[in-house]
């Protein structure tokens, strides 16, 4: 076992608040005298430094607010407990800063290895602490709270050794993710080359209304008491939150609520297995989240689904990729609350390729899916490896 001392963050790192600026000082394009600023949305698995930036006058940015390689950017204020506390590290030299809803954590090199600190701030222990931050609506982490947060710290040599081990494990995990992304891009580019985009199909192909090719399903409110919790004894009641469950494509969910298969409203709202399901109401439409049902399911009032009709002139792989590329926001209506309905989808024009071409695309699709499933299994293993090593590291067992 390695000796671990609990040390307040202020003793091993500097916490710097983000830049404040007015709306009139924020610009969407770079210009002389302006510097880029990252915000909470840029904090993903990596810190995104080339997208969704704002540019503010250099005079508004203090020297200590300029990011350096190795700095850790953290979201300190958000309406979501899942977002506040998210961190990402600056992995390259970059001249810019960070906004007021964020902070930077800069390790003191003689006391703390920056990579070791970053991995700890990504650990379940730290994320659990951040999700308990105060505030009923807006979640906040104050600088004083971060300063006092205690980090388990071995000597600097052990920190560097632990960081090197976790770097290697993280590298394996990232390689798996990149392979997944590359296979997805291959499938999209193949579809676009063969058939064109949903709204701009290949002009050589005939088109038909979507409603003539596919069955459309819109979720409805259930009668009181018809949904129940318990064991799997009926049809799964699917909700918008299920679209955010882990997984690349098909929804695999544990039971939360069920609906009897004998209910009088079932025929209208049960979507079949392999139907493509997506949000139909509110801001969720903008996420463009679309998933595939792993089993026949009842849809809640905020969901819609689509599936090929029996004998349809298209195949499931074609429909799956067509919907993957379809921008739902372009067809939603409603000035205050965006909304989709069957009437919006029914007249959409879908290109109908020849059977030979469909079969060729299906072979590509099945090949890519086979690779993706293999990568998914490898990703689960690499995630488990990283998680296990991380937990052991911060218990002093590496």
Number of helices, counting only DSSP H or I runs of 4 residues or more: 10
User: Could you please say which CATH topology of the largest domain applies here?
Assistant: Adenine-n6-DNA-methyltransferase TaqI, Chain A, domain 2
Specify the overall morphology.
globular
Sheet having the most strands: 5 strands, mixed
Walkthrough of the structure:
This protein is α+β, with helices and mostly antiparallel strands and 398 residues long. It has 2 domains: 5-153, Adenine-n6-DNA-methyltransferase TaqI, Chain A, domain 2, CATH 3.90.220.20; 206-352, DNA methylase specificity domains (Adenine-n6-DNA-methyltransferase TaqI, Chain A, domain 2, Alpha-Beta Complex). The chain contains 10 helices and 25 strands. A 5-stranded mixed beta sheet has the order 15-24-21-22-18. Helix 5 packs antiparallel against helix 10 (355-393). The longest helix has 40 residues, at 156-195. It is globular.
């Amino acid at each position: 076992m390695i000796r671990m001392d609990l040390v307040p963050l202020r003793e091993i790192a500097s916490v710097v608040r983000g830049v404040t600026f007015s709306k009139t000082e924020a610009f969407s394009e770079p210009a002389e005298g302006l510097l880029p600023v990252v915000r909470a949305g840029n904090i993903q698995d990596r810190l995104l430094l080339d997208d969704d930036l704002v540019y503010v006058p250099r005079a508004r940015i203090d020297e200590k607010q300029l990011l350096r390689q190795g700095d850790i950017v953290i979201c300190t204020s958000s309406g979501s407990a899942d977002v506040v506390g998210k961190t990402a590290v600056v992995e390259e030299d970059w001249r810019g800063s960070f906004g007021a809803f964020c902070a930077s954590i800069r390790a003191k090199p003689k006391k703390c290895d920056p990579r070791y600190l970053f991995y700890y701030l990504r650990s379940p222990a730290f994320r659990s602490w951040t999700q308990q931050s105060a505030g009923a609506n807006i979640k906040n982490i104050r600088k004083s709270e971060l300063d006092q947060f205690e980090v388990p710290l071995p000597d600097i040599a052990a920190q560097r050794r632990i960081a090197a081990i976790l770097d290697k494990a993280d590298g394996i995990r990232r390689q798996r993710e990149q392979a997944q992304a590359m296979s997805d891009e291959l499938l999209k580019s193949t579809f676009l080359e063969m058939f064109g985009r949903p709204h701009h199909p290949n002009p050589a192909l005939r088109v038909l209304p979507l409603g003539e090719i596919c069955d459309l399903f819109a979720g409805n409110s259930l009668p009181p008491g018809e949904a129940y919790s318990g064991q799997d004894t009926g049809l799964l009641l699917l909700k918008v939150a299920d679209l955010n469950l882990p997984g690349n494509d098909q929804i695999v969910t544990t039971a939360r609520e069920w609906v009897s298969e004998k209910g009088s409203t079932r025929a209208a709202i049960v979507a079949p297995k392999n139907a493509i399901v997506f949000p139909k109401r509110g801001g969720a439409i903008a996420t463009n989240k679309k998933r595939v049902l792993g089993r026949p399911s009842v849809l809640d009032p905020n969901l819609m689904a689509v599936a090929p009709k029996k004998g349809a002139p298209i195949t499931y792989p074609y429909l799956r990729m067509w919907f993957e590329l379809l921008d739902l926001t372009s067809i939603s209506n409603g000035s205050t609350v965006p909304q989709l309905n069957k009437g919006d989808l029914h007249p959409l024009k879908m290109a109908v390729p020849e059977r030979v071409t469909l079969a060729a695309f299906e072979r590509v699709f099945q090949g890519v899916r086979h690779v993706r499933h293999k990568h998914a299994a490898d990703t689960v293993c690499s995630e488990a490896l990283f998680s296990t090593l991380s937990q052991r590291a911060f218990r002093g067992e590496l």
